Amino acid sequence: MRLIYTFDDEKEAVNFSSFLSKEGVENSIENEFDPVSKKPVFQLWILNEDDVKKTEQWLEEYKKDPKNSRFTPSLFVFSKKERQTEEEAEKEVMEGPLRQSRRPSHGFGLTIFLIMVCCALFLVDSVQEVKLAEQVPLAKEEPLITPLEQKLLFDFPKHAALLQQFFLSYPVKDKTELEHLPLVAQQEYKRAEETPYWEGIYPYLVPKKEAKPLKEGPLFEKIRQGEVWRLISPVILHRDFLHILFNMLWLWYLGRQVEPRLGKWRFLLISLIIGVIANLAQYFMSGPFFLGYSGIIVGLVGFIWMRQRKAPWEGYPLQRTIILFLLFFIVAMFALQIFGYFLEFWDVSNLSANIGNTAHITGGIVGLLLGRLSYFARKKA
Questions:
Q1: CA 253 to chain centre
Q2: Of 73, 77, 89, nearest to 15 (Cα)?
Q3: Quick one: fold of 109-157+197-376?
Q4: Longest dimension (CA), the chain
Q5: In tens digits, what is the pLDDT along the chain, a chain of 381 residues?
Q6: Which of 141, 200, 363, 375 lies at a CB distance of 3.0 to 4.6 Å from 298, suitable for a disulfide?
């Protein structure tokens, strides 16, 4: 089964599909939604690999002259009754190929479950953020972390724990008030600030004239204590509504393609592999305070792209425009981060896109590599 062409117009898709059926070529049309153009598209699939070459030749002829009478279907080609009316025949021509649409037989329940988990945790985390902001006026300025994030971020280093404890004990409204706190409180704050933690290699790439000396903190503080779920758990956390909306729409769109073809367990495995490796790369680059599903999203796009080239008969319907759109987004964010890096390097401004580009790029590479493995070939129906 191979995706041959994507039509923007339903009637054109049905006409060409009807022509193929008349020529004895088994085919089907799938109605999909294009998230880029936000319009329905109609994908033409050829069921037998032996019919692909001649179908491509006919398609080239059709695109040159779609009004050619050769490709205009007779209203009675699909008639099963000798006295069928013209209206009934036309309805059969227009609807028949769409009714024959064949999707992979396996469901995508795991995709739905993952979306539900991410949304539920986002709601819990949002409530906790509101409560934290009420307790600590400086919550938006200081790296204070909700109880949920403390358990699910890649790490919750001692540095962050001490700062959290300090601002909960002394809820100052402005940092200038720190000077008026008791000496014991000032010492607690100084101890928290001076406690080293892993900040990633990025700060070492941006030397600043007046920056305090960098202290290399311990790696994997919580993971070394047995909290191994942190290797993957940051992916199910999201920063704000647009963040989770963007990621969940992509997870829905891609999961509906990958999970039915691999089965839920291999889909889970490929997501775990991409997520863990992307998280490790992001941690080494920028430290533990990152979250979001986008590393896996890019990895799934890379995986589908590779499967389309290595095994096109598996029928992944990801369009080239979708891949280019996501690639453009990643390149744009990467360019913004590079621009911000040079501003910091020249000590002009501290501009940060706050985007996990390391996770995006790493996830994409891992997805491409996994797409080359026969283990992740399409599951047989």
A1: 9
A2: 73
A3: Rhomboid-like fold (1.20.1540)
A4: 99
A5: 777 888 888 888 888 888 888 888 888 887 776 666 677 888 888 888 888 889 999 899 888 888 887 777 654 344 444 344 444 544 544 444 444 444 444 578 999 999 999 999 999 999 999 888 888 776 556 667 899 999 999 999 999 999 888 888 888 877 778 888 888 888 998 998 889 999 888 777 765 544 445 557 889 999 999 999 999 999 999 999 999 999 999 999 999 999 999 999 999 999 999 999 999 999 999 899 999 999 999 999 999 999 988 887 787 877 777 778 777 877 777 777 676 666 665 655 555 545 678 899 999 999 999 999 999 987 655
A6: 363
User: CATH 1.20.1540.10: which residues of the chain?
Assistant: 109-157+197-376
Written as six digits, the tokens of 25 are: 């070529």
Structure-block tokens of residue 82: 């000798």
The tokens for 195 are 């406690």
Measured CA to CA, the distance from residue 27 to residue 49 in angstroms comes to 11
Burial class (CB in 10 A: 0-12, 13-18, 19+), 117: exposed
Radius of gyration, CA atoms only, the chain? 27
Burial category of 60 from C-beta neighbours within 10 Å (exposed 0-12, middle 13-18, buried 19 and up): exposed
Q: How far apart are CA 143 and CA 193, in angstroms?
A: 12
| Token pair listed for 331 | 């390149």
Nearest-angstrom CA–CA distance, 166 and 160 = 10
End-to-end C-alpha distance for the chain, whole angstroms: 12
Identity of the residue numbered 286: S
Q: Tell me if 196 sits within 8 A of 217, measured CB to CB.
A: yes
Q: Provide the CATH topology of domain 2-99.
A: Alpha-Beta Plaits (3.30.70)
DSSP state of 137: T
Question: CA 317, CA 260: separation in Å to the nearest integer?
Answer: 12
d(CA 329, CA 326): 5
Distance from C-alpha of 240 to C-alpha of 222, rounded to nearest angstrom: 25
Which token pair is 61?
Answer: 């002829």
